[in-house]
Amino acid sequence: MKRDIILAGVGGQGILSIATTIGTAALHTGLHLKQAEVHGMSQRGGDVSSNLRIADHEIASDLIPYGKADLIISVEPMESLRYLPLLAPGGWLITSTKPFINIPNYPEMDKLIMEIEHIHNHIALDADEIARKLGSARSANMVILGAASPFLEIEYSELQDAIRQIFEKKGEEIIAMNLNALQAGRDFAETHMN
Amino acid sequence: MNQKLMLLGDEAIAQAAIDAGISGIYAYPGTPSTEITEYVIQSAEAKSGKIRAGWSTNEKTAMESALGMSYAGKRVMVCMKHVGLNVAADPFMNSAITGANGGLIVVSADDPSMHSSQNEQDSRVYGQFALLPILEPTSQQDAYDMVHYGFDMSEKLGVPVLMRITTRLAHSRAGVVRKPTRLQNEIHLPEDHRQFILLPSNARRQYKTLLQKQEVFEKYALESGFNVFSDGENKELGIITTGIAYNYLLENYPDRIIPFPVLKIAQYPVPHSMVAEIYNSCEKLLILEEGYPILEESIKGFLNTGKTVRGRLDGTVPRDGELNPNIVALALGMHDTRGIDIPSIVVGRPPSLCKGCPHIYSYNALNEALEVFSKGRVFSDIGCYTLGALDPFDAINTCVDMGASITMAKGAADAGLHPAVAVIGDSTFTHSGITGLIDCVKDKSQIMIMILDNETTAMTGGQDSSAFGRIEDICLGVGVKKEHIFILDPSPKSHKENLAILNQELCYEGVSVIIPRRECIQTSIRHHKEHQKSEALLSEN
């Protein structure tokens, strides 16, 4: 078993919170893990990505080879497309459709959506909107993780446990909020998978 | 103890240094090395062990402080990014001649592909230049283990050891198992009281000692187990990897069986016998190096009359940039697994100054003040404000090395470019700007220096700035006239006032210093949150 995941977004959007949750669950399951992060200049509003690799065997490279990523998980629609050369044939693209516009030449939304829909296996959802409706606007990243959860080959309960563990100190209310967001994303994916 | 910790390569090095009994760590922040020292600063174990952990003014002062701690017999680590080693080069080169007393490891983190740097120089060249042993870990666990080994070697052989890492190891997380911890050393001064006095007569003797040790260094590299030869059935090709290139090679063989003989190099000087073995038994060689083709050049030789050696020099591997599994696959003649192309509507998203960043208002005022002059007068420096080079500011014309803004503006002013403006951050100013300012004062150079004081080292994540609250005192102290030092508020409401001061000082025929001062928006948010948290705690109690 192996899952090679590209996490994508814009510096400051907190993609590492998704990585941490998957990583915590993977480690608890006894899987091997490598996670290459971006630190430094790009964190200032530039494009950022993280290579998250989990497997039931030793992992060699910190970087995922081109055409081998099983999943692209993106918290921003244009950023989801930047890593397509890494996506394996048949791999899944999970992305939020909420744009982060901090450049003057940001492409037109309908064209972006068209490109995303070109990818056969995709889940596109407005995670911010879903999170806000749940009354937890800050949990959009957990909605995205929930939407990716059917493809992770990690038990859903392991992800739930990971969230409980990570947010333990923040109290029951925050834990429940994140668990709800996770579930909402998963529900969306399950109804849009085909 | 046997539990796996998920650590960045940087953090593995830091944890190992704590476990191996360092008494101090010195550094100047620089991507991708920053997280080593940050980890030690935040470590409860380091605090309880009273390990000296903090930021130095620059890499040179860090290196010298580390050498001083080694002189006193204690174990010590000093960390920097690759270009930081240029700044520390003087003490680094000479530390090879003095040797070490307490164990001394110098960590230099290279940034091939220049993710956050102005060049991709390979620190192994410095290691060879200084004739010192080099360790180049291939994994986070390797990095952890090598720190323990490196301190042992440093103390047994009486020399500093260079550890070279690259971005992908520094900033990638993997499981690391710790070793038993060691006690710190007691103070013990060098037995030879002249060892650290590099008068020519002593230095000649010490240098001969260093030369004699080369053979021992190679023996260590042969016997440590970090350099590994594994035979393969197919002798048409022999592969030599250095550092993390090995991981990319292995990635291309999912069953982990490589048909060719492979020599994995992780410790230098490279043992001749190991290279000879693979060279003699294979028809040709492929060299995979993360960095400069150092080993490739030496195996090929100046005349290249031997067997075919493939690598970065003959184009089998690109001459520049970091490696990845695909580059290695192509070098092995495997097919390209690249997926779908990036759609053409995807545009670049360069980093930018944060919303509300004080630098924005400094550049707005400067740009407006300079409108009446021809372009090309602003000499800038290394930091967040380098982003002033990009749209919408297009405000600066140079960025070369730490401190070069002031001195390059001076040179241009000396050449007759008036006005000439230098733009430098507070931390960069203390790192390498003060000496240049003294030159300007001495020569009464006609330049305007803007020291953008956001009260932190922002680009690397908000580390302490050495001269916090003392920038104008330093300028006064080195002789800038009081009436030509101005503190500005870089915000929209002060724009008119700021503009008037800039217009006035651009005409002044001497050294003027403008200090726009407002805290970095990122550290300000962080401090606000910390403050709220402590308030909440107080009210709970």
Beta-strand fraction estimate of chain A: 15-25%
Helix content of chain B: 40-55%
> Do you know the CATH architecture of chain A?
3-Layer(aba) Sandwich
CATH homologous superfamily of chain A - what is it?
Answer: Pyruvate-ferredoxin oxidoreductase, PFOR, domain III
Number of helices of chain B: 20
Provide the spatial order of strands within the biggest beta sheet of chain A.
2-3-1-4-5-6
List the secondary-structure elements of chain A in sequence, H or E.
EHEEEHEHEHHHH
What do you see in this structure?
The complex is a heterodimer of chains A (194) and B (541). Chain A is α/β, with parallel strands linked by helices. Chain A has a single domain (2-192), classed as Pyruvate-ferredoxin Oxidoreductase, domain 3 (3-Layer(aba) Sandwich). Chain A is 40% helix and 22% strand. In chain A, strands 2-3-1-4-5-6 form a 6-stranded mixed β-sheet, with helices on both faces. In chain A, strand 5, helix 3 (109-118) and strand 6 form a beta-alpha-beta unit. In chain A, helix 1 (15-28) packs across helix 5, helix 1 crosses helix 6 and helix 5 packs across helix 7 (172-192). The longest helix of chain A has 21 residues, at 172-192. Chain A starts with a strand and ends with a helix. The mean pLDDT of chain A is 94. Chain B is α/β, with parallel strands linked by helices. Chain B has 3 domains: 4-223, Rossmann fold (3-Layer(aba) Sandwich), CATH 3.40.50; 228-331, Rossmann fold (3-Layer(aba) Sandwich); 358-524, Rossmann fold. Helices cover 41% and strands 16% of the residues of chain B. Chain B has helices at 9-19, 34-42, 44-48, 59-71, 82-87, 89-98, 123-130, 140-157, 167-170, 200-223, 245-251, 272-281, 294-300, 325-331, 358-370, 404-414, 426-443, 471-477, 495-506, 521-540; strands at residues 4-8, 24-27, 52-55, 76-81, 104-110, 134-135, 161-166, 172-177, 228-230, 237-242, 262-265, 267-268, 284-289, 309-310, 378-379, 420-425, 447-452, 485-488, 511-516. A 7-stranded mixed β-sheet of chain B has the order 3-2-4-5-7-6-12, with helices on both faces. In chain B, strands 9-11-10-13-14 form a 5-stranded mixed β-sheet, with helices on both faces. In chain B, helix 15 crosses helix 19 and helix 16 runs parallel beside helix 17. The longest helix of chain B is centred in the middle third of the chain and has 24 residues, at 200-223. The mean pLDDT of chain B is 96. The chains are: A alpha/beta (194), B alpha/beta (541). Chains A and B meet through strand 2, helix 2, strand 5 and helix 3 of A and strand 1, strand 8, helix 11 and helix 14 of B. Strand 2 (32-36) of chain A pairs antiparallel with strand 8 (172-177) of chain B, so a sheet runs across the interface.
